[in-house]
Amino acid sequence: MWAEVTVEVREDSPAHYLLKIESFSRLSESGIYKFESNEFEAAGYKWKMIIYPDGDTRENGSGHISVYLAISGTSSLLVGWEVNAIFTFFLFDQLHDNYLSVRGEKRRFQRIKSLWGLPKFLSHQTFKEASNGYLVDDKCVVGAEIFVFQRQAIGECLSMVKSNNSFKREWKICNFSKLGEDWLSEVFTVGDYKWKLWLYPKGSFNDKGYNI
């Protein structure tokens, strides 16, 4: 756990989401191995917090509380979407009126991987130790903050096509000096496209009277 996260204690409450759980022990007693929160908004996206009270055993989280963040409402996002985010999970210390914060690494949320989190968020031993204040009268408060890295890069693709077909076309223009403001050739075909030659005998725009 400690190699991938930053653990701190702070007084400020989470900016984006708080969840109070009453009768925490009854989650296990009722056979609820996974709890999924309601949807909430943060950083322009919709999310859900997912908690495994007895640990996510698939990710070796046994003996711990496992907490995950899942992006939701993805049907409204563009095809090929991805969201790069750093998330922080919180646990309220009810005795000292502050929060344990555990910040994970930057993760990429996308269609094939829309859920990230901490299988070993906190051990049951630490969580249930009365002097820590995390579980009081079988109640606890957890929270989350999400920071999203906005994508500002511009993508571009250059494709070079080699062609052995060259094209040459000549026009004979009589009475050039008597042409009007512009002259347009007939349509001609090169490759799969149709073209016209557009000529300004006396120049155009800022070059008028100086260039062809």
What report would you give on this structure?
With 212 residues, this protein is mainly beta. It is built from 2 helices and 15 strands. The strands form 4 sheets. Strands 1, 2, 7, 8, 9 and 11 form a 6-stranded antiparallel sheet that branches. Strands 3, 4, 5, 6 and 10 form a 5-stranded antiparallel sheet that branches. A two-stranded antiparallel sheet has the order 12-15. A hairpin with a 2-residue loop joins strand 4 and strand 5. The protein is rod-shaped, with a radius of gyration of 32 Å. The N and C termini lie far apart (72 Å).
Structure described in brief:
By secondary structure, this protein is mostly beta strands. The protein has helices spanning 25-29, 124-128, and strands at residues 6-10, 17-21, 35-36, 40-42, 45-52, 64-72, 82-93, 98-103, 107-110, 115-123, 140-149, 183-184, 188-190, 193-195, 198-199. The strands form four sheets. Strands 1, 2, 7, 8, 9 and 11 form a six-stranded antiparallel β-sheet that branches.
